[in-house]
Amino acid sequence: MTNKILKIALVGRTNAGKSTLINKIVGEKISIQNKKINTTQETVMGVKNMKKTQLIFYDTPGSNFLKSLNKDSKNLKINLWNGIDGSDIIFYLIDSKMANIKFLYEQIDKLQEVKKKIIVIFNKIDLISNKQLLPLISDLDKNFNIDSFFTISAIQNIGIDDLLDYIQKYSYVSKWIFKDDEITNKDDIFIISELLRETMLKYLHKEIPYNINIETSNFKTLKNNDIKIKQKIIINQKRYKKIILGKKGEMIKKIREDSQKKMSQILKAKIHLYLEILNA
Description:
By secondary structure, this protein is an alpha/beta fold. It has 8 helices and 10 strands.
């Protein structure tokens, strides 16, 4: 039987659940999840192999940036469009409880310019009844050329298998891009750096994690198979150091312990994490 592939762009407003969905599909945490705006700043690719078909998912930054003219969001916009351009079809993900018809019209209208099949996915249906969505689905179906509509709950793993089964008909004969055991285009260093950034987003004021860089300076497997990790938190404003440290170092301790626990779960090893705050 011949190998096939299909590349899918996950597009949607910030917090529509794109990262939750891609993590659920590949079965591992590869993309940062947080309720604060635009936590996915790079295009992370997730891989799901189903028999002879390789599905490649592009987790893009929030689609708030589709038409953005803001200089600060230029790279986010580029990463978003790169994910769309590199895909074969588009999953447009919507937070069912936050659906805004005017915003959806603008977004889908813009997406249709690329002439690719668009599958509209209403996420978080565990928080809303399907009946409430029917008028919106009917409206979008009448006004746009939508391939199909799906309702899912990424966090509860509802409807995802049906969605994956459906899109396989669009796969095409090709060599696989990723090896059989690969689930992402990102390495462990990137993922643990993202885990630290995710933890900082959780605990700190929203402006700080967008104005820092995380650098993993040491990643070493010890003789007993524990892993020693050293990470530098590089800040561009001195005032951030005091906030990150917290009173009597309580904040940085909380960040380190939480990050260490997440890294241990991902890497399936005991982690010894050391953090250092440096000025850029």
